[in-house]
Amino acid sequence: MPCALVVPASALGIGWQDLRADWLLDHGDEATGKVVAVHTPRDGDGTPTITVSYTAAGVPEQAEINRDSDREYEVGEPISVFYDPADPARVRTEDEQNVGDGWMAVFSVPLIFVAILLPLTITLAVGWARRRRLARRTGWRPVRIQAHDRADHAQVVRFTVGGRRVVARTTSLTRVLREGSRRAGARVAGSGLRFVLVLPRGSRRGGPRVVALRAFDPRRGG
Fold first, then answer.
1. pLDDT at position 83, please?
2. What totals of helices (H) and strands (E) does the chain contain, helices first?
3. Burial of 175 (0-12, 13-18, 19+ CB in 10 A)
4. What tens digit of pLDDT does each residue of 37-48 get?
5. For residue 86, how many other CB atoms are within 10 A of its CB?
């Protein structure tokens, strides 16, 4: 699902859960129950809950309700319970919607994923857009590439362009060539610190391979 659809879909899902919970307040049957257990996980590992006992249509029931409010509960205290007459196990209180962890995960996790992925995607897109403009300005120049592996960084490549000896590393952990390899027929565009390298027959399908590079001064540690 495209990122543009994840946010509204997740928002609709969370809204649907809220409507289901509110329906119990407006249309459910009310009973006076009692708190029989209070569970508060340590260090936030798990979901706080209360266990309540109540009578629905003359039948004793007991349900565990997820807590998402700041209200404090004590065992034995009376509590108003709202349940679905057609499904007495579907229950909530005035303060606790009792939305299931599974449903919240289904609708919330995609939002968290998008919140992490979207800034990264934008950063990558902006970076490549800048390199595209740079390539149009400087043009593509043929170079001979030499690659070196470094244990603490991405692979380092060396080439000479416009009389300048450039040492650069890939902006990802992708290896450009095998350690110590030299390859002619490559093309490079860019200047300053940003470069784009195109290797002929770089992919398994035989097409060119495009790699983003960032130059550095090896004398300063790079």
1. 93
2. 2, 11
3. middle
4. 999 887 766 788
5. 7
- Amino acid identity, position 121: T
Selected residue with higher pLDDT from 89 and 18: 89
Please choose, from the candidates 2, 10, 14, the residue with its C-alpha nearest in 3D space to the C-alpha of residue 110: 10
How confident is the model over 62-81, as a mean pLDDT? 90
How much is the pTM? Answer: 0.43
User: What does the block give as tokens for 220?
Assistant: 């300063």
8 Å CB contact between 13 and 107: yes
Q: Six-digit token pair at 62?
A: 């007991």
pLDDT of residue 52: 94
The structure tokens listed for 35 are: 């708190």
193-196 own/partner pairs: CB under 8 Å, 24+ apart: 194/130, 194/131, 194/134, 195/131, 195/166, 195/168, 196/131, 196/134, 196/135
Most distant CA pair in the chain, distance: 91
Q: Are 215 and 195 in contact (CB under 8 A)?
A: yes
Q: Which pLDDT belongs to residue 75? A: 94
Q: Is the pLDDT of residue 135 over 70?
A: yes
Return the bridge partners of 35, or none: 52
**Residues 215 and 192: beta-carbon distance below 8 Å:** yes
Burial (0-12, 13-18, 19+ Cβ within 10 Å), 47 = middle
> SS3 of 38, please?
strand
Cα–Cα distance measured from residue 179 to residue 134, given in angstroms and rounded to the nearest whole number: 28
